[in-house]
Amino acid sequence: MQRDLDQLMADRDLDAIVVSGKTAGNPPLIYLLNGAHLTQALVVKKRGATPHLIASPIEREVAAATGYPVILNTRYGYRDLLGKHGGDVLAASVAYQRAIFDDLGVTGRVGFYGYRDQGSAYAFLTALNAALPAIDIVGESDANLIEAARATKDAAEVARIRDVGRRTAEVVRQTVSFLQAHTVDADETLRHATENRALTIGDVHAHIHRLITLQGLEDAEGFIFAAGRDAGVPHNQGTLDMPLRLGETIIFDIYPRESGGGYFFDMTRTFCLGYAPEAVMDLYQDVMGCVAHLKAALQAGVETRTYQQMTCAFFEERGHPTIGSDPATLEGYIHSLGHGVGLDIHEAPSFFDHVGNTARLTPGHVFTLEPGLYYPDRGMGCRIEDTLWLDEDGNVSNLTGYPYDLVVPM
User: What domain range is 158 assigned to?
Assistant: First the structure.
């Protein structure tokens, strides 16, 4: 959480942090802007002090909505610096950052965050480190300070995620209603409502795109609506010209976000139209049994990889291959159990079962659980996914308000 920034800085022995860049596609900066929609910005926070926001004069009123002290970037005269350095953008940028640090009294160990072209970032930070002897630039790799802060969510963040979840569930409800509105031919193929042909996966995709937009959400990462054999390959998004038929498993995995680069939600349901064959029912019951088994075991302080191990053991006891015993398997249980959800669709915590994963369930985590079983050669797959929240009292809340019914009546 943002309230943890000072402690996280102390843990890393950082005297200050800088988060900057264009805002679009830049979750670290979006995170610190507290919902303000700026084109680009630079945030400087000294340990133990309120962050300062450097922004353009044309966005000064939007910048004020962050609640931070706002400094207009004209104060540091970038255009004059560019002229002074003969148009050398790198030299001017270093001088500009020096002026900001001098003004705000920044010295010591400084961490830099935010998304930027790798070559450009390397050139800038290398030049800055050489030019400012009072500054020691500190780099981080995985689980950096901003990622660690983002891993736990406060009540306001959870409220936003919950709202995206409500709208996402509505998209799923309306998609199911759309399917139910179509007639079925004698060969169990759904008929297009207005054209003399079968209803296809592509038709449903187009309708889902519209529904996401109508809910005021953004389809930033796509979605999965796949049937039959395609449902047996976890990230197959669906063959667009495939007709919809009764009795086939359909995996609908949908993960939109707030418009403008905000918070994501993630949920998956598996269903069959009209009826479910016995083999599909058996698969579904095993997945639902695993969901219940895992939810009953969720507890703050437990290593997340433990739940991946539990999932593998649960499915193997029921005769399914898993990556726990065969990492190369392409059927059965073949992926990680879940992931954190926030300003990225996949963020901390991770549930991968490997030595480097030392994450523990922590109050404030918002995360998915998504066990699944996949048999492409048998033409079926099944996955159930909810987004959950571990609150500050250690209680688990399901943010996914949608039923688990396998069969959709037609």
Answer: 151-408
